[in-house]
Amino acid sequence: MKKTAMNRILILGLSMVFVVFGTVSFAEEQDSSGIFDLAVGIEGMGGETTYQIGGNIVYANGASESIHFPLSELEWPLDIWLGRIDAGLNIGDSWRINGVVKKNISDPDSNMKDSDWGVWYLDGDPGTSPSDLDIYSESNISDFDAVIFDIDVEWAFLQRETWSLFAGIGYQYQNFEYEGQLIEETGYYLGNPIGTFPGDGSVGITYEITYNMPYLLIGTDVNLIDNLTLAGSFTYAPWVEAEDEDHHLMRNKVSKGDMDGDAFMLDLSAQYNITPSWFLVAGFHYTKIDVDGDQNQTINGVPYVTIEETSESTQTSGYFKAGFTF
């Protein structure tokens, strides 16, 4: 996905926030119980997205074979800062709609790591093993874009004076887009380095991955004192769809993956009401995504192979936001 498309998604998300705000005025005319809140904040994320290929291979001519897994692994860093805008609408006493849009405001500080195993083994070299690390490189992240959009509907099905339980459904979209400049690539034979290739400062690889995640959630909130509320929720996404694209520019090799799997998310937060209208929220968020499928590779636009692919993303965040209730 190009930057222009990502910007459109961000604008769409922000537009939805203002649409919700606009509907509040109408809702308040119809139902005085509607309460709308809007918050802005910052989020620090750590983690990585790692994908591996190997296993069953089908060549363009129809021939097939099975090799060791993994043959190759790329680890893309997610140590970034995000800006976020949150909105929520209470409908009556039991229903609530939440939405959040996040956009990166920094690039990853860590390098992308690329590893290949058993290359000599595949060439039939005696004495080598599929577990031998034969090629390793690191690339600096020279450009990066991230957009995360999330919306859910919650129903408080059990309410007591100081606590409640809620359940809901939602949808989350994630898109991460990278450009990497090769720092150095080293070849190995039986564990010993045999040659090093330094980068020249140009972009050698680009990578993009997109997740679509409809989900179910359950959670609780507890009013400890008049102005302090603790909340926690667990989310499970059983039908995650993921697409990625890796472009090795020096070889003009394009690899496109189509995967599916599942994910879970955990969110814990504390809200302090400074006044009846102004509030502060600090929280912790964890996401784990596991998907697998097939990767189709082309070289110079010509189909090459289809190979098995798995991808895993781990995202750990701490966030802080300030908001106003209308």
Overall description:
Strands 1, 2, 3, 4, 5, 6, 7, 8, 9, 10, 11, 12, 13 and 14 form a 14-stranded antiparallel beta sheet that branches. The model is unreliable at 1-34 (pLDDT under 50). The longest helix is centred in the first third of the chain and has 28 residues, at 3-30. This protein is 10% helix and 72% strand. The radius of gyration is 23 Å and the shape is elongated. It has 326 residues and is mostly beta strands. A hairpin with a 4-residue loop joins strand 1 and strand 2. It has one domain: Beta Barrel (Lipocalin). It starts with a helix and ends with a strand.
Round the Cα radius of gyration to an integer and report it: 23 Å
Q: Please identify the top-level CATH class.
A: Mainly Beta
> Low-confidence runs (pLDDT<50, min 5 residues)?
1-34
Question: So, CATH architecture?
Answer: Beta Barrel
Q: In percent terms, what proportion of residues is strand?
A: over 45%
CATH fold-level assignment: Lipocalin
Ends apart, CA distance between termini: 36 Å
How many distinct helices?
2
The SS-based structural class is mainly beta
Query: Could you spell the SSE succession in H and E letters?
Result: HEEEEEEHEEEEEEEE
Q: Total number of β-strand segments?
A: 14
Quaternary status: single chain
Report mean pLDDT, rounded to a whole number: 90
Helicity range of the residues?
Answer: under 10%
Coarse morphology: elongated
- CATH homologous superfamily heading: OMPT-like
Largest sheet: 14 strands, antiparallel
Number of domains: 1
